[in-house]
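task queued by scheduler; priority normal; single chain, no ligands, no partner chains; default sampling; output format set to structure tokens
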Amino acid sequence: MSGFAPKFWRPGTEAPESKVRIERPYSQESYADSIAYNPYLSLSMQQQRQRLPVFKHRNHILYLLEKHQTVVIVGETGCGKSTQIPQYLYESGWTNSQKIIGVTQPRRVATTTVAGRVAEEMGCMLGQEVGYVIRFDDVSDPKRTKVKFLTDGLLVREMMGDPLLNKYSVLMLDEAHERSLYTDIITGLLKKILKKRLDLKLIVSSATLDAEMFRDFFNLNTSGDSKKDTAAILTVKGRMFPVDIYYSYYPVPDYIKSTVSTIWAIHQDERPGDILAFLTGQEEVERVVALVLERAETLPDSANQLMVLPMYGGLPASEQLKVFGRTPTDARKVVVATNIAEASITINGIVYVIDCGFVKVRAYNPNNGLGELQISSFGVVAYWCLCTESLVVTPVSQSSATQRSGRAGRVRSGKSFRLYTEKDFKKLPVAAVPEMQRSNLATVVLQLKSMGIDNVLRFSFLSPPPAKSMIRALDLLYALGGLDDNGSLTHPLGLQMAEFPLHPMFAKMLLTSGEFGCSDEAVTIAAMLQLDNIFLRPPNKKRESVRQHNISYQTANKSLLVYAQDRARLAFSVYEGDHLTMLNVYKAFISHKKSARFCHKHFLNYRVLCRAVDIREQLIKTLRRFKVKIKPVEDDECEPVQRCIVSGFFANAARLHPSGTYRTVRDDHPLEIHPTSVLYGEKLPQWVVFHEVIQTNKDYMRDITVIEPEWLYELAPHYYEFGTAGELAAKRAKTTS
């Protein structure tokens, strides 16, 4: 065991003094005996459905839905609500009269996997009676699909075209406890729709939910007579199997190394069963996977018995599906995941859960001046970025910890190992802060305006956002040209921005790209920015990459661990920044006829680039609908493309400070260039714009383009309150002196 291995104890028992407390060591029995612990292997699909806890509540659910307009269902993780309730509705005739059933999920992966499972249980092809719709991917048939799964963001876009959702008979908001941005928008809009459409039924479901709050929000009864209530609550008791919770006896100094140590302790001492470990982000997931595989190589027997698989949102779909495969009888599956595996999706065979106690969320602070320091009970400082949204690592909530533990009770009694003390658990917030209260609201305001809700400040939010966030969003939309002096959508730019399936900054960049003569390049950059992991980082190919690019192994490992794959970017890199580098990658991919061999040679993600081609084609169709001509820039000039990027992302402008760091132009917030940028370590440009901020120990800009300050004056004078060109020149001279 590593020195970082935590000591666990189960509440109600005597705390351990020396060894890691993992009960019932299981090292003598064969892994083949694990079949005895999976009750589903010998059951038919119908028998599996009937064994789920939600099955005995089937008639109660249908009765409440007939009697009330809204039903709030609270069911513990693993009860089967996500997959079974849509089928109960379909079997009961709610898809008659040319109506369909809609089920929303907050995550793309959950949408596709749950839809696939329901289609399998209903015995139909995915895309026929059961289909799904996510951004840039529609697997449904307008005439045949009766049960449609979609992300909450897509449902909001459907409301823009059909405000009363006339084609739906029942809507189910699943995993409402996550309180995603669009889930909160949907709840506010549905409250208005339910008043107009008395025939529309709504189901709100989750494992950990403030049921009374949702019931009171959707209850349209104002008479005071409880018999006339339009909303009711149903609780589905019982998880499939009990889960024992174990806390760390002492706070762990490094939860990444402790996760690896705990995985090995379980593998060596526990009975058969797959392991699910929760971490905060892709880099941590890949690091733990690499450490476990590296340690497995030193133990040949363990290497054959461990299937170590990553799971995060940016992973290609083919790689994500691997975690759902059946584990061989002589092996143990270890899934290392972000909070994407916390709810909705179910990975069969999970018996042991390792919870690091942290989660990475998007945070936004609209205030000016100094940032807001928050010190958690874990001793971690979270800094809420001022100028834009940033990714921040924060402690999980108690409800999220409960959700994570519940993943272990699906096939037999399980165990959850929390890498924090019970004392720290009790200090955690009961529920996470709704995304509505910590997000940039520019997209929200734009879409609400497009649906005729002019007074967005008085919109019926489930959890009202800070007024400053709304004002900041209105300010940005006005500067982008989406709103006029009266706060109404401009025509045609504002209306077109609202219809675009992208952030308003992207929409403005694309819709004005024709004016700069670079619409072909702009749409390519926008498509590439919708995807992650364009450059691959396979740990086992590190030495090979060093050899291919004539880099000494000592140089590649100097200071921080530098993957030589990053050096492969030099073949595509330009001084103008990351956006044009992505453009070069895409052009090279197309010029080599979308060759998988070319991608393998240059450590490019072939599937991601193929996906970029599809997204680009869909964006081009949207631009042509708005009569924007798609034409490339003349003579391969960079300046028109840079100016076009500034036209959309001027709010994310930063200048080089004499201290060597960057400062945002409007808020004077300190930032640094992310190590993955092509500009990192090079001669630093004076002025840049960036796509987003990533926070670790510092705030880092990611996806950067070099600009000239005069472009800010020309394209966004009101946003920065610039005066004359002479005043701007004076400011520039003062900054660079």
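post-processing summary
- The CA atoms of residues 392 and 426 lie 22 Å apart.
- The first strand starts at residue 8 and ends at 9.
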